[in-house]
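Entry details:
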Amino acid sequence: MPVQTDEAKETVRVDHGLEAKAGDLAVTVTLYDDHLGSVQSIKCGDFVRLCNVHAADYSDDGVDLCIHRGTTSGRGVFRYSPSDTDVLNLKKVLDGVDAGSSNNQEQRVASVTLHPNVPFSTITQMINSQVPHKHHLKVQVTQVFPSEVTKMVKLFCPQCKSKYDMARGDSSDATREVHDAGEQCPRCANKKSPPFETLPQLRYVFRMEVRLEDYTGAVNAYLVEEDVGDMFPDLPATNLFVDHACRESLHKRLCFLCGGKNPFDAPVPSMKSYSRPWFDCCVKSYYVGGKPKKSSDKRQVAYRIFDTSLKPLC
């Protein structure tokens, strides 16, 4: 867990994986005066005993836990030896809990990332970190947008980068779909009723948004184009109004990602932490429209899932 000595202005030592694993079971304890020295030898992951911890209402955020100066009534922080009997017994209990969790398929989505050795971050840490940046998260997918599967594929013009909503029809050709359905032509085309042949070659692309949550916060992240191909292998972007098999397969995979629940339903706040499986994914932050040139420029920050795929279980 994080170890910090503010007065000594030392760098915070954090094990993001351990912190994410602890979730809302972690608490902050502040040490004062002569107890600061005991922190120097403590590393993330060490087992310690905190004696005579005091609870005080010092802030507006709730009760603070602290250890005041002095050693009255055994007050202090004491580090256990890794070979201590109590530590060994506790590790056996924790290993049993981890084994039970990993074997429970209802609580874990089988996913693979291309960066498994990168330490986990929490959503709050990602939100508060520099932009752009890449993160490895363990989260729950609680909702998917838009609210209909057929709206998750757009028509894309590679020439002017325009994207258009699909229209109901029986065409399997992306360029003819725009023409037949009377959609607005791409910006790069002649807007005065051009002949069909002058339209640039359009293609179908995926574009959806998922709600990611952990014990520290929540964000919406995009899944677009090739990232969807990585997430759902062998699922091509196509006209979902026509390709019923592809539409059903996408809906099934989204339900799987959400733990068998309807991916378009908003989660029940009191139940989401217990009824949704955990999902490993890589997410990168970026500025919409590019990085601001001046510190005074305000740009919206967005998030995008990448280098992540579901194992072919559905």
